[in-house]
Amino acid sequence: MKPTRDGISEAGMSLLELMISVAIISIVLLSVIYAMTGVVQAQRNARLQDRALADLETVREQVLAVPYDSVREIFPDGSQVPAFNNVPGEVITITYPGSDPDADPLPINITIQWRNINNAVITRTLQLLKKK
């Protein structure tokens, strides 16, 4: 390796320089992969939530389609609606807050629970009023 007139070697990168550049590139790639993993999990959780809320909306439509006098018979207080199996651990429950069974309008709570990608239980409640 002959030095030039300026005293700078014309040789390529040394092994140490190569190892440092590989280490820097590895750190950058690992951080990008870690960030992408979080994005994919958030996307999957959002997709599960969309499915769960669509199931909740379907049950709401079923409750509203039933005549007022039959709602408590078809959907007893605390009853679970058969799951649609769109979401892991999905449970849909119908309750009637308040003690007056003849209230007009009748308050109805439809609650859905499911498990997300991280196995955490998520709960959402839809409150509606059924009129005679």
Helix content: 40-55%
Main beta-sheet strand count, sense and barrel state: 4 strands, antiparallel
From the helix content, strand content and strand pairing, which structural class follows?
Answer: alpha+beta
How many helices? The count is 2
Give the amount of beta strand, in percent. Answer: 15-25%
* Shape, per Cα inertia axes: rod-shaped
Gyration radius, rounded: 30 Å
Strands in their spatial order, largest beta sheet: 1-2-3-4
Question: SSE order in H/E notation?
Answer: HHEEEE
| Average of per-residue pLDDT values | 89
Low-confidence parts = none
N-C termini distance = 96 Å
How many separate domains make up the residues? 1
Using DSSP, what is the number of strands? 4
Q: In words, what does this structure look like?
A:
By secondary structure, the protein is an alpha+beta fold. The protein has one domain. It has helices at residues 15-65, 71-74; strands at 79-81, 91-95, 106-115, 121-130. The protein has a 4-stranded antiparallel beta sheet with strand order 1-2-3-4, with helices on one face. β3 (106-115) and β4 (121-130) form a beta hairpin. The relative contact order is 0.13. The model has no long low-confidence stretch (mean pLDDT 89).
